[in-house]
């Protein structure tokens, strides 16, 4: 670097920043508004929130361990009990979603096993493959051919017809 710097182009900042002197005795309105906001709005809200958090800390609620009661099945509902019909339909939909997730989890486990084992997948992933076959068959037996608009009543009728066919097949086999 050259020794002859242009001090006018590159001015050195001052060593100390001067402190502004207050000329009037009137307080700054921003400071006043900030203080009023802190005492009138922020302090009570903070107090109430901390009190609520202390109460909640005493009674911890773990929602993921909550056990819901099973509602009656559609076959257990009395005739004309529409509330029971509605609850049974909602329970059936939850059960269907749970069964879909079970099939998906087993499918993901099989995919992970295949990825992990590579060429030896047929030997080492036989247990996962069998489990997927069983889960898929159970899901298909219960929910298959219902379509996207399937409901608890049509599922119940499907199971009834399947049971009747199995009894007929047993009766024919015994004769």
Automatic annotation (TrEMBL):
Its main location: mitochondrion. It is a peripheral membrane protein. InterPro entries: NADH_UbQ_OxRdtase_su10, NDUFB10. It is found in: Mitochondrion inner membrane. Signal peptide: none annotated. Keywords: Electron transport, Membrane, Mitochondrion, Mitochondrion inner membrane, Respiratory chain, Transport. GO terms for cellular component: mitochondrial inner membrane; respiratory chain complex I. It comes from the Eukaryota. It holds the Pfam family NDUFB10. Accessory subunit that is involved in the functional assembly of the mitochondrial respiratory chain complex I. Complex I has an NADH dehydrogenase activity with ubiquinone as an immediate electron acceptor and mediates the transfer of electrons from NADH to the respiratory chain. Belongs to the complex I NDUFB10 subunit family. This is NADH dehydrogenase [ubiquinone] 1 beta subcomplex subunit 10. It comes from Aptenodytes patagonicus (King penguin).
């Amino acid at each position: 670097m050259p020794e002859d710097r242009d001090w006018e182009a590159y001015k050195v900042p001052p060593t100390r920043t001067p402190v502004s002197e207050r000329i009037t005795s009137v307080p700054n309105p921003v400071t006043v508004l900030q203080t009023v906001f802190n005492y009138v709005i922020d302090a009570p809200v903070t107090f109430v929130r901390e009190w609520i958090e202390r109460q909640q800390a005493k009674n911890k609620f773990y929602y993921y361990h909550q056990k819901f009661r099973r509602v009656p099945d559609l076959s257990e509902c009395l005739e004309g009990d529409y509330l029971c019909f509605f609850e049974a339909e909602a329970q059936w939909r939850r059960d269907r979603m749970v069964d879909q997730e079970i099939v998906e989890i087993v499918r993901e486990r099989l995919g992970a096993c295949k990825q992990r084992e590579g060429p030896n997948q047929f030997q080492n992933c036989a247990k996962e493959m069998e489990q997927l076959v069983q889960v898929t068959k159970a899901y298909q037996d219960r929910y298959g051919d219902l379509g996207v608009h399937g409901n608890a009543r049509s599922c119940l009728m499907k199971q009834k017809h399947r049971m009747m066919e199995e009894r007929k097949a047993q009766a024919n086999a015994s004769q």
